[in-house]
């Protein structure tokens, strides 16, 4: 079989200027389209990730709760999360790096320790809602994230003795008042809409989390306060991801 070698110079000579321009324009448009697709696709499909230090997981609830009790006595959350297995969480972390660092430090005592990643799709505007309703949802979700991060930072500062109990309680009350205006706005927008009853249920649970801040004034044991906040924070994060999934 005879072989052929492609001669680009010969090919270029045969192309007239009009064809050259058309090919260049077409190539440019294709590159632009590919670039936009690569730029937009991850944003549309990007997921939020939430990180938990998991001490161990079990097939039975009793095994999980036994370990959870031990973890809570050591100032960890001791939260049991079920997804087909019962996972025992010690704490929530807003970023993977911190979760990995803590997990590695715990491996000498708990070889089964790992980072559990809970993934949830980001919120996309809902077509049949008004701009104000979509904005209300976005504001609420952003307020949830701000709430989670603020509580987390307060817990860390409290555990490191950077802030005292009175300052912690004051921080939590300020966080609560900032959050309430967005949750109230959400309920006002969807007060009579039964389609979003599940979403309202999750928002109500998060509201109860902030209402709980006031009850901490009656608790004198600082380690207990820290442990309870860690537990409640994980519960709040899970409700937040459930809220996202409900839209």
What does this protein look like?
- The chain folds into 2 domains: 47-121, Alpha-Beta Plaits; 131-246.
- The chain is 64% helix and 13% strand.
- It is built from 8 helices and 4 strands.
- Mean pLDDT is 85; it is low at 1-15 and 36-45.
- α7 packs antiparallel against α8.
- It starts with 7 loop residues before the first helix and ends with a helix.
- It has 247 residues and is an alpha+beta fold.
- Strands 2-3-1-4 form a 4-stranded antiparallel sheet, with helices on both faces.
- Total of helices: 8
Helical content, roughly?
Answer: 55-70%
Q: How far apart are the first and last residues' alpha carbons, in Å?
A: 63 Å
Strand content: 5-15%
How confident is the prediction overall: mean pLDDT? 85
The main sheet orders its strands as 2-3-1-4
Please mark out the parts with pLDDT under 50 across 5 or more consecutive residues, or reply none.
Answer: 1-15, 36-45
Q: Write down the overall geometry.
A: globular
* Major beta-sheet overview: 4 strands, antiparallel
Q: Structural class of the secondary elements?
A: alpha+beta
Element pattern in H and E: HHEHEEHEHHHH
How many strands appear in the DSSP assignment? 4
Q: Using only CA atoms, what is the Rg?
A: 26 Å
Tally of separate domains:
2
Features of this protein?
single chain; 247 residues; Alpha-Beta Plaits; 2 domains; four-stranded antiparallel sheet; 64% helix; globular; disordered N terminus
SSE diagram, text form:
Layout: H1 8-14, H2 17-45, E1 47-58, H3 61-73, E2 79-82, E3 86-93, H4 96-106, E4 114-121, H5 131-159, H6 165-189, H7 197-215, H8 222-246
Antiparallel strand pairs: 1-3, 1-4, 2-3
Helix pairs in contact: 5-6, 5-8, 6-7, 7-8
